[in-house]
Each structure stands twice: as C-alpha cells, then as structure tokens.
Design goal:
211 residues, alpha/beta, Rossmann fold, seven-stranded parallel β-sheet
C-alpha cells in the first residue's frame, strides 16, 4: 500500500503526522510525505526511516510570490503522484485540500482528510475561499474524515450532510529510547531512593538547567 501525505508546510512540525506515518510504515506501507521548508523548523524534520520518504520544496517566499510558490507546489505534487501512483492520499491542512482533490481525480486514489485545526473563515481572500470550497467538497468525497475531538466531528458531519466523521486524538509518537538527560535523572532518582531506604534518610535532589 502506498500513502501520499500532502501538506503545504513542513510535516515534521506536526507530531501526529509523524506518528501516523511511522505507524503506517511499521505496518508495511510505503509512505511519501510531500511538504515545504518552513523557517526555523529544520530541527523538526522527519528523521530518515525505513518506509518513509520525505521530500520538501524550498521555503515559500512572502508577498505576491507566495501564490506562485503554491501553484508550483501543487504542480509538483501532481507530477509526483502521477509517477508514484498512491493508493491513499492523506491531507490535513486547508491549503492541501484543492491539491488532494485534484490528485485524487488524477490517480483515483482514496483520500483521508484529517482536520487538526479548524480554518478561520473570517473575510477570506480569493485563494482562501477556493481552499474553503475545496474543503467542503473533500468533506463529502473523502473516503475517511477524521478530527481530534467529538465536537468538531459533529460540526463537520453536519456540514457534510450527516456523513460519518471519526474522532481520533492527536497523540505524538513516544520515543523508543529516552533522552540521555531523562535516563540520567531516572538513574539518580533510583540511587536516592536506595540511599533513603538504606539509611532511613530524606535526601532530595534539585535539578536546574537540565537539557
């Protein structure tokens, strides 16, 4: 199974996306994440791992060039999808909704729309309105629609004519190994407990500036 993640942002900045992709890869799926560079998020890039291929466009410029960058991103995703032929498309931000619709029509892939944050609809410009229109269509046409809480699921279900909307909490991936600082603190705590039991003392530990 091939799953294409489409996010007009750096997917590494969103732990639930990383968790979902990791679980899919561990189950045997091939995952490709297509996003963009975002200022100050490089340390959050998705770490290379088996089954997950992350490709990021350059950072979006400001001003009128942002629209051209978005158009290039959409065309790039369409080319990647046409060549890779995914079975599923995962979209989770407002700007990905028009692209997900187009790519689904191009590849016949099924779509999961996972809305983590409700879009602000106050006085949208032309581009935002087109994205909101695409979101409304995706709410009805996506194979699966997911939100992180029951209230939003009920709202989206009503917007989509009463269709089923799943509720799944946003949970980050638990690291397989603890950071060295956490391991050191855990070891020190064990020592202090042993000392207190052995000598019936009340030794404590104050930790400051631990990184």
């Amino acid at each position: 199974m091939r799953v294409l993640y489409v996010q007009y942002t750096n997917p590494g900045a969103y732990p639930p996306l990383v968790r979902g992709a990791t679980l899919l890869a561990e189950s045997g799926a091939s995952v490709r994440m297509l996003g963009t560079r975002v200022r100050d998020t490089d340390p959050l890039d998705v770490a290379p791992s088996k089954g997950i291929d992350v490709r990021l466009m350059n950072e979006a410029p400001e001003g009128w060039r942002l629209k051209a960058h978005y158009a290039r991103y959409g065309a790039w995703v369409a080319r990647e999808a046409a060549a890779w032929k995914p079975d599923w498309i995962y979209a989770s931000d407002l700007f990905s909704t028009p692209i997900a619709l187009a790519v689904a029509a191009l590849t016949r892939a099924r779509v999961v729309y996972h809305e983590h944050d409700a879009p602000a609809a106050a006085r949208p410009n032309w581009v935002i309105q087109r994205c909101l229109d695409a979101r409304a269509r995706l709410l009805r046409s996506a194979t699966i629609v997911v939100t992180p809480n029951a209230d939003r699921s009920a709202r989206l279900s009503a917007l989509a004519g009463g269709r089923q909307v799943l509720t799944v909490w946003n949970c980050p991936l638990r690291p397989a190994t603890k950071p060295r600082s956490a391991r050191a603190l855990e070891a020190m705590t064990t020592v202090l407990i042993a000392v207190n039991k052995r000598y019936k003392a009340h030794v404590g530990l104050r930790v400051t500036g631990l990184a």
